[in-house]
Amino acid sequence: MLSENKLQDQYNNLDEVAAEARAGMALVDARVGYLPLESVEIFATGGWGRAMAAGPLDARDPTIATEVDLGVTWQPYGPVASFTIAGIGLWPANPAPFS
């Protein structure tokens, strides 16, 4: 939701909202994964976004949101087919930075 979402792409991802407001966005994210089996990956992703321009912001804090994803991906047939189960937490800035 905070940036490109390969699992569930939506029309209103927050990076697109920042682009439409011409605010710019700095995004810091990290992903770690562990392969307990050759075809199974357990992963965690964390991200934090900040608006670069203060003009379109409603709040003094330029933070856009913080996101944490936890999940498991199973690839039974290599790169041909994969299944992912993920829990995604998104904490938008309070109040929302864009009008």
Description:
- It is a single chain.
- The protein is mainly β.
- It has one domain.
- The protein is built from 1 helix and 4 strands.
- Strands 1-2-3-4 form a 4-stranded antiparallel β-sheet.
- The two termini are 18 Å apart.
- The model has no long low-confidence stretch (mean pLDDT 80).
For the secondary structure, the number of strands is 4
Return residue spans where pLDDT drops below 50 for at least 5 consecutive residues.
none
What is the element string, with H for helices and E for strands? HEEEE
| Structural class determined from secondary elements | mainly beta
How many angstroms does the end-to-end distance come to? 18 Å
If you compute it from the alpha carbons, what radius of gyration comes out, rounded to the nearest whole angstrom?
16 Å
Q: Give the strand content.
A: over 45%
As a percent range, the share of helical residues equals under 10%
Query: Order of strands across the widest beta sheet?
Result: 1-2-3-4
Mind describing the biggest β-sheet? Answer: 4 strands, antiparallel
Q: Please indicate the count of domains.
A: 1
Mean pLDDT: 80
Query: What is the number of helical segments per DSSP (H or I, 4+ residues)?
Result: 1
Shape: elongated
